[in-house]
Amino acid sequence: MRTFAFLRAINVGRRTVRMERLREEFTALGFSGVETFIASGNVIFESGAVKEKPLRERIERHLHGNLGFEVTTFLRSSSELTNIVNRCPFSTAPGASVYVAFLAVAPETRAAKDLMACQSQTDQFHVHNREIYWLCRTTMSDSKFSGALLEKILRQPATIRNLTTLQKLTAKYPPLPGT
Q: What is the pTM assigned to this prediction?
């Protein structure tokens, strides 16, 4: 099964990892067809594993042991990623961007309500299962909202990707037949 791993905080601050090294680490785990997509911690691989949680935990343990720091990992299948892209509730105007935050589990009801209370003229959110869609009507750096604030409100780690990146991923790696 083709799987996408979205790694949190890769090539941010002092956590610099070359994509070649990430490919080597995923190959060492026994995965095939390992590729990376842009230098922000997007790894595509094939695995026979069907249960997400043990697979995610195995990857996180391996990366922590070999890179020397914790790497929170979010996994999605090809069909899940395609559905995430197709389900986007926002259309963008010039100067705006849509981001998708990946979570390990759906946020608790209270946390989702707290997030929705943060909406503004600039930032709008939509919660769907383990993803948060974020429409930012300015640049992310000019927004008062941030990934750190998102994690604080939801009380769990997340990693954020631009919808454009996800669209490119789904175009390059469509779901395999029968998945």
A: 0.95
Q: Quickly list DSSP for 88-123.
A: ------TT-EEEEEE-SSPPPHHHHHHHHTT--SSE
What dihedral do alpha carbons 158, 95, 84, 67 form, nearest 10°? -40
Q: Does residue 142 surpass a pLDDT of 90?
A: no
Contacts of 14 (CB under 8 A, 6+ apart): none
Q: Delimit the domains of the chain by residue range.
A: 2-77, 85-172
Using one digit for the tens of pLDDT, what is the confidence trace for 75-96? 999 999 999 999 999 998 888 9
Give the tokens for residue 69. 């720091």
Fold of 85-172: Alpha-Beta Plaits (3.30.70)
Query: Does this chain's domain 2-77 share its CATH topology with 85-172?
Result: yes
Contacts of 126 (CB under 8 A, 6+ apart): 89, 90, 132, 133, 135
Look at the domain 2-77 and name its fold. Alpha-Beta Plaits (3.30.70)
